[in-house]
Amino acid sequence: MDPLSEEQNVPKKRTVHFLVQGQFGNNFFQYLAGEIMKKIYGYDEVKPTFFINLEFNTVIDDAAYKKIILAYMSGCTLEIDTSKDILLMGFFQRSEILIYERDFIKSLFCEENMNNISNRIKIGNIVKYKSKHTMVPTKNDLTLHLRCEFFWDHETKRSQIFDPEGIKQIVASIPHEKLYIVYVPATVEWEKKYYEQFESLNPIWINGSLGDDFDFLMKSPKLITSASTMCYLAAYFGNATEVHIPYNSYYGGEEGNGQHLTAFDDKCKMYYSIDYWSPV
User: Fold this and answer.
1) Torsion over CA of 213, 214, 219 and 223, rounded to 10 degrees?
2) Share of the chain above pLDDT 70, in %
């Protein structure tokens, strides 16, 4: 038989594509949403993409994804056009499905999974990564994650940076020996001023590559998260026995279609009354 004819007879794989937007945490959530869609609708593979093809794909945004997962969790499959590949265009950061499919999602986080979450980062390589941090938090230590950067929107004057006083109250309420602060270094003066407000806690400041910091957060037995999705995922996939989550309502909360990240099991404690801090 003609090899070309054989190739033409091979069924085309049905693919869930996710548009890569944002940084590591966003990409990881986009990939996980792809795996959920693949499972619900029986597709063959999940792949990142940097191109928008509206004609040949069934496009799913955050609002549609929320409807799909809520229907799925109630035992129904929402009808979509499955004659095409699926293109996910959004961020898909919903804790409802992370709780409902926790065993399935955690099973994806393994060395054998060499699927990409972006053009260069593979799940298996994240799992196998060897950190360059020499310090390792013990069961008696507490880790706090802090990040400024784009969590302050200069144009809208809105912030996702939690108020230092509120965070320090959480720290004070948790018995611990050493306090580690994993942070993204300051590049402008207002970021330096924010970090300086934590010096009174006498922390050990931790900063390395993305892989180093993600690994440190995953190994932290007691963890206070920031608004960073990277930190939330480290808590979700990591070994913490205590996870303290200040709730980020910036994207509209549970009723909205955007980010809604809450407790994913009984080791988590939520804090809903933490204010946001702004540099102005």
Assistant:
1) 90
2) 96
Domain assignments of the chain as residue spans, ordered by start: 11-128, 142-271
pLDDT in tens, 38-59: 999 999 999 999 999 888 899 9
The CATH number of 142-271, from 3.40.50, 3.90.1200, 1.20.1070, 3.10.580, is: 3.40.50
**What's the farthest any 2 CA atoms get from each other in the chain?**
76
Q: What is the pLDDT of residues 187-240, one digit of tens each?
A: 999 999 999 999 999 999 999 999 999 999 999 999 999 999 999 999 999 999
Handedness of CA 55, 56, 62, 66 (dihedral sign): positive
Q: Cα separation of 44 and 92, whole Å?
A: 20
Q: How many CB atoms lie within 10 A of CB 175?
A: 8
- In 3D space, the residue among 234, 208, 210, 215 whose CA is nearest the CA of residue 223 turns out to be 234
Helix, strand, coil share of the chain (percent; to 5): 35, 20, 45
Q: Are strands 158-159 and 152-153 parallel, antiparallel or unpaired?
A: antiparallel
β-partners of residue 179 are 142
What pTM value is reported for the model?
Answer: 0.94
Among residues 32, 197, 218, 52, the alpha carbon closest in space to that of 108 is found at 32
Q: What distance in Å separates the CA atoms of residue 222 and residue 224, rounded to the nearest whole number?
A: 7
Query: Could you tell me which of 207, 184, 228 has the C-alpha nearest to residue 25?
Result: 228
